[in-house]
Specification:
Chain B: It comes from Pseudooceanicola pacificus. Chain B: Keywords: ATP-binding, Nucleotide-binding, Transport. The structure holds three protein chains of three kinds. Chain A is an all-alpha fold. Chain A contains 13 helices and two strands; from the N terminus they run H-H-H-H-H-E-H-H-H-H-E-H-H-H-H. Chain A has a two-stranded antiparallel sheet. The model of chain A has no long low-confidence stretch (mean pLDDT about 95). In chain B, strands 6-7-8-3-9-10 form a six-stranded mixed beta sheet, sandwiched between helices. Chain B has nine helices and ten strands. In chain B, about 35% of the residues lie in helices and about 25% in strands. Chain B has two domains: about 160 residues, P-loop containing nucleotide triphosphate hydrolases (Rossmann fold, 3-Layer(aba) Sandwich); about 70 residues, no CATH class. Chain B is α/β, with parallel strands linked by helices. Chain B starts with 5 loop residues before the first strand and ends with a helix. The longest helix of chain B has 14 residues. The model of chain B has no long low-confidence stretch (mean pLDDT about 90). Chain C is mostly helical. Chain C has a single domain, classed as ABC transporter involved in vitamin B12 uptake, BtuC (Orthogonal Bundle), CATH 1.10.3470. A two-stranded antiparallel sheet of chain C has the order 1-2. In chain C, a hairpin with a 3-residue loop joins strand 1 and strand 2. The N and C termini of chain C lie far apart (about 40 Å). Classes of the chains: A mainly alpha, B alpha/beta, C mainly alpha. Chains in contact: A-B, A-C. At the A-C interface, helix 5, helix 10 and helix 12 of A face helix 4, helix 9 and helix 11 of C.
Chain lengths: ~325, ~250, ~300
């Protein structure tokens, strides 16, 4: 068994064991923290598909997170206020059903990724970074200045949305749903990395010229990667909104885009469990350091600086060494 | 005479005041190796770029398999069977040798849109990739990371990727560059075999290789073709000696 | 809508444009010479504003406050360049993004630690506090007019610096060929520190100047930084001229969009929803501008390289 595999299994075991232990001892708050970590891990896994496989340094992933969040917020708002989203051309009611909300979150964030990608992928390098950051800001200001759904204040959803057969109000059951999504997406990510598309995308990141000379379009490969990536992060946004029962424009903020990227980097770019490790470490630090000092972001900054300057490969890299060949 | 596979007519490309390609006309016939030689700065790389679609010419036409491809992008020409190798190896260094060859096979099939099934389990492309690796002598290192290959092996892999495209013509940009004498002898032997598959347009500095392989040679100087002829004709031509070898009498 | 109102809004657009230029010029210079994308540029803007507010509170002199802003930001820039940034030049953009994101966290929280979370205020000096009457009977705040003047003067100064001085020659050489200028015997690491400090100083100056009409608080730099990125995408990376044109375009679009779009929608719908829709769309107008320029010229108006 490779060390990376051992690391991944250990991480999985912790994702099951810690909340189970918390459930037994009645530490509900720990379950909420773990849910937060799992949802961030899902968002970061989304980014890792674009960044790790496709080399796309997107600093605007909060767009998809926010769209997912507002998909939940808007649908649930109309359901709880018994008003339709629209009456024309057909009446579309709101919903409190998670599967429907997820589907909408995935589709709308995928569409946004497609549109942003069509524009941003006309460029490469620093332009791409700056453009994704700028589009993030565009959504942020739009959410602030559009008053129908709370504007700057955001909006609260009073009761968590439902899933057939489960009581999502019980923290451990909601956690189970989020973990299930994370596992499905990790499985998908692992398969994707080895698939034909993954192979071509990997090559498009390393040698775009080569991909073109074998008759493939690297930009189209990257566009599809961005769409998949945005859809996953959008789904995470919908879950996050349900965790907090609240959505606000901060879900679109550039800080959040930066943090999603930080999860990926401190965990390990391009490593399957990198985003998971990074998100868990972040939430743990936020909780532990945040309890000691209100200024814990300073220490997060210092840690990040050290990882960038001295420790390539993030947590997974530290435990499992440099990446082996994907096979 | 059979129709040429690839032909270039009156190709011009300027960068500012520099005429990098100045009315180049040449063709590549079935079954031949056509070498392009010329001193540094003669415009060989610019010419290759235009033939493969990386640069668009200011004037002139490029025909491939009877069709005008002047306006087509790189990947469209590649899909028609124009297989290019790079002067500086352009491979996915983190991937294995087999994965690199497989990329070519996927490109040739035009099917990169598989999202769940492992690429290596795709029997058709995999067989194609493995055959190409065997042919260039890389069968033993298929599972090795490309970054760990020697310089010469990367050159062979470049050729293998080109082979997976089932090419109708090869365009090779200085395949011998940076190889030792043993390496270039090996590659020379390989190229001599390849022309049975498809004709080769070969840009090369290594004169031993060129004289050993080429059926015809075009001499490019300051963006213009000074002459095109057989090895003997080129060797004997005083203009070539002057322009290219620099030892004017 | 009166001509006077329009003229005022055009001046407001110019004013925010030239301030954006101070930010964008430093960013684009740093990218052009060192190939570095610096997210922490907004932090230097904040450093300038806080330094100015602190010095103004202590001395009561606005000019001293401006000098302090320039000096503090330039010094912070030089220190950060020496300690962190110079280790990033040969790294990829992803590393640069993360390391400079880490710097934002450190700068922001550090500032909060020292100054607290409440906004500080920097007052406009009395000698610039009134309005001036412009030709055509427009009354316009003297301070904002001064900002336009300062911004244009800096643009001119920067142009002179780059086209007429030895430092400028080196900067231009550095943009074209790094090895070449090392071979010419220019101390390249010192040149980099100087260029970074210059960019930082411009950001700090902008922070102090704008701080007097807005509040001085943690997090004030990043929205401006992102606008400056939009400016650079429009103008083209590495081009000072592009930064100026882009900054003015963005400043004018943002200001005029906020005024005219609601007016435009009043032609189609009732006033209150026109104001709503107009304001929401106005918040997107500069990004739409950016998208349009991207479709037309992917490397920006004056950009050469991708």
């Amino acid at each position: 068994m490779s060390r990376e595999r051992a690391f991944n299994l250990a991480a999985l075991a912790l994702l099951v064991a810690v909340p189970a232990w918390a459930q037994l001892t009645g530490e509900t708050f720990t379950i909420t923290l773990a849910t937060r970590a799992v949802i961030f891990a899902l968002a970061a896994t989304g980014l890792n598909i674009a960044l790790g496989l496709g080399g796309l340094v997107s600093l605007g992933h909060a767009v998809f997170f926010g769209i997912g969040g507002y998909a939940m917020g808007i649908l649930a708002f109309h359901a709880q206020s018994y008003t339709p989203l629209t009456d024309w051309p057909v009446t579309i009611p709101g919903t409190k059903l998670m599967p429907v909300i997820w589907l909408v979150a995935i589709l709308v964030s995928a569409l946004a990724a497609l549109l942003i990608g069509l524009l941003a992928l006309r460029t490469t390098g620093v332009y791409f970074i700056m453009i994704t950051l700028a589009f993030g800001q565009m959504f942020y200001y739009f959410a602030i200045s559009w008053p129908a759904y709370g504007g700057e204040d955001g909006m609260a959803i009073y009761v968590r949305n439902g899933f057939p057969g489960l009581n999502t109000l019980i923290p451990i059951q909601f956690y189970g749903l989020c973990l299930a999504w994370l596992l499905v997406v990790l499985w998908f990510n692992a398969r994707l990395a080895r698939s034909r598309f993954g192979l071509a995308l990997n090559a498009a990141r390393q040698a775009p010229q080569r991909v073109e000379t074998v008759g493939l379009d690297p930009v189209r490969l990257k566009l599809v990667a961005l769409v998949i990536s945005g859809a996953v992060t959008g789904l995470a946004g919908a879950l996050f909104a349900d965790l907090n029962r609240f959505v606000s424009p901060t879900m679109f903020s550039w800080q959040l885009s930066g943090e999603i990227m930080v999860f990926v980097i401190i965990g390990g770019v391009g490593r399957l469990f990198g985003p998971v490790a990074g998100a868990c470490l972040f939430v743990a630090l936020e909780h532990l350091l945040g309890g000691i000092t209100a200024y814990w972001h300073v220490w997060l900054g210092v840690l990040l600086l050290f990882i960038v300057l001295f420790g390539r490969g993030g947590l997974v890299g530290i435990f499992a060494g440099r990446g082996a060949v994907h096979d | 005479m059979t129709d040429p596979v690839l032909s270039v007519e009156g190709l011009c490309k300027s960068f500012g005041a520099l005429r990098a390609t100045d009315g180049v006309t040449l063709d590549l016939r079935p079954g031949e190796i056509h070498a392009i030689i010329g001193p540094n700065g003669a415009g060989k790389s610019t010419l290759i770029q235009q033939i493969c679609g990386g640069l668009s010419p200011d004037a002139g036409r490029i025909r491939f398999l009877g069709a005008d491809v002047t306006a087509l992008p790189v990947r469209a020409r590649a899909r028609m069977g124009l297989a290019r190798t790079f002067q500086i190896s352009s491979l996915a260094m983190e991937d294995t040798v087999l994965q690199n060859a497989l990329l070519g096979a996927l490109g040739a099939a035009g099917r990169p849109w598989g999202f769940l099934r492992p690429a290596l389990r795709d029997a058709g492309p995999r067989t194609l990739a493995e055959q190409a690796l065997e042919r260039v002598g890389l069968g033993d290192v298929a599972a090795v990371r490309t970054a760990e290959l020697s310089h010469g092996q990367r050159r062979q892999l470049e050729v293998a990727v080109a082979l997976t495209l089932s090419p109708r013509a090869f365009v090779m940009d200085e395949p011998m560059a940076g190889l030792g004498s043993a390496g270039s002898q090996q590659l020379t032997a390989l190229l001599a075999e390849l022309k049975a598959d498809a004709p080769v347009l070969l840009v090369e500095h290594d004169m031993d290789a060129v004289f050993a392989l080429a059926d015809r040679i075009s001499v490019l100087v300051y963006g213009q073709v000074v002459m095109t002829g057989t090895v003997e004709e080129v060797r004997a031509d005083p203009r070539v000696r002057e322009a290219y070898l620099g030892d004017a009498p | 809508m009166s001509a006077i109102l329009i003229a005022e809004q055009v001046l407001n657009g110019l004013q925010s444009g030239v301030m954006l230029f101070l930010m964008a010029a430093g960013l684009t210079l740093i990218f052009g010479v060192m190939g570095l994308i610096n997210l922490a540029h907004g932090s230097l803007y904040m450093v300038g504003a806080f330094a100015a507010a602190a010095v103004a509170a202590a001395t009561g002199s606005f000019l001293l406050a401006l000098a302090a802003a320039l000096a503090a930001a330039a010094l912070a820039g030089a220190v950060v360049e020496t300690v962190v940034i110079r280790r990033l030049y040969d790294k990829d953009h992803l590393d640069q993004v993360l390391a400079t994101f880490a710097l934002i966290l450190i700068f922001s929280e550090g500032t909060r630690w020292i100054f607290g979370s409440f906004p500080l205020f920097l007052d406009i000096p009395p000698w610039l506090s009134g309005p001036v009457e412009l030709p055509g009977g427009i009354l316009y705040p003297a301070y904002r007019l001064a900002l336009i003047g300062v911004g244009l003067a800096v643009a001119l100064g920067l142009w002179l610096l780059i086209s007429r001085t030895r430092l400028g020659v080196r900067i231009r050489a550095g943009e074209n060929d790094r090895e070449m200028i090392a071979a010419l015997g220019v101390d390249i690491s010192r040149l980099y520190t100087v260029v970074f400090a210059l960019g930082a100083g411009l950001a700090g100056l902008a922070g102090a100047l704008v701080g007097a009409i807005q509040s001085v608080q943690v997090g004030m730099g990043e929205p401006v930084l992102i606008l400056a990125f939009v400016v650079i995408v429009i103008g083209g990376i590495g081009s000072i001229r592009g930064a100026l044109v882009g900054a003015l375009l963005v400043g004018l679009t943002d200001t005029l969009g906020g005024i005219f779009l609601p007016e435009l929608f009043k032609l189609f719908t009732d006033p209150s929803s026109a104001t709503t829709i107009g304001a929401a769309l106005a918040s997107m107008s500069i990004y739409v501008l950016m998208a349009a320029i991207l479709v037309w010229k992917p490397t920006g108006l004056y950009g050469a390289r991708a």
